[in-house]
Amino acid sequence: VNQIPYKRADVSKVKIALDKFLEINDNAKCVQDVLDARKVFNDAMEEFNTYASLAYVRYSQDTRDEFYLGEQDFYDQEGPTVSGYYSTYASAMVNSPFRVELEKLLPETLFPSYECAIKSHSKETEDLERLENSIVTEYSQLLAQVTMDWEGEEKPLSYVRGFMEDSSREV
């Protein structure tokens, strides 16, 4: 993971890709137009999610790292906005005049997942999602600071937790 180059995801790229998708989708003459537009949006989402995941992994490796704490805070704040973009995209796909054709060409689980994304996102709750994200990050920092005396040494809870689930009672 540490060999993979990291840069902060550009949320504006996702918004630009969404706008491009919506424009092409609204003027689509055939199912291929929708599929081509879909690729543009999905590529932007994949880049955002890749960098967000990479930042999270590096943050979780060391919650004291100020740089990745800042990155985690960024994704905590921007994640709900990007979820809103995805919900808008999903709604356009669900309501596409080419939906029947799209359902034949795409995985059968895709449209139910779009419907779930639409139902699970609301612009009105984005601020609450941001707050929840911040609280979860703060909680993970607190847990990472918990240490215990283990066999005469101070060990982090994450280290000791592995032994708590060991099937051997000798541990």
List the helices and strands and how they pair.
Elements lengths: L10 H16 L4 H31 L4 H29 L4 H7 L4 H11 L5 H20 L1 E4 L2 E4 H8 L7
Antiparallel strand pairs: 1-2
Helix pairs in contact: 1-2, 1-3, 2-3, 3-5, 3-6
Oligomer: single chain
Helices, by number, come to 7
- The helicity comes to over 70%
What's the N-to-C terminus distance? 31 Å
**Largest sheet composition:** 2 strands, antiparallel
Uncertain residue segments: none
Strand content: under 5%
Mean pLDDT across every amino acid position: 92
Question: What shape does the CA trace take?
Answer: elongated
- What is the number of strand segments? 2
The main sheet orders its strands as 1-2
Radius of gyration: 21 Å
Helix/strand-derived category reads mainly alpha
Question: Can you write the helix and strand succession as a string?
Answer: HHHHHHEEH
Provide structural commentary.
71% of the residues lie in helices and 5% in strands. The chain is mainly α and 171 residues long. Strands 1-2 form a two-stranded antiparallel ribbon. A hairpin with a 2-residue loop joins strand 1 (147-150) and strand 2 (153-156). The longest helix has 31 residues, at 31-61. The relative contact order is 0.10.
How is this structure best summarized?
The protein is mainly alpha-helical. It has 7 helices and 2 strands.
Characteristics:
single chain, 7 helices, mainly alpha, 171 residues, 5% strand, two-stranded antiparallel sheet
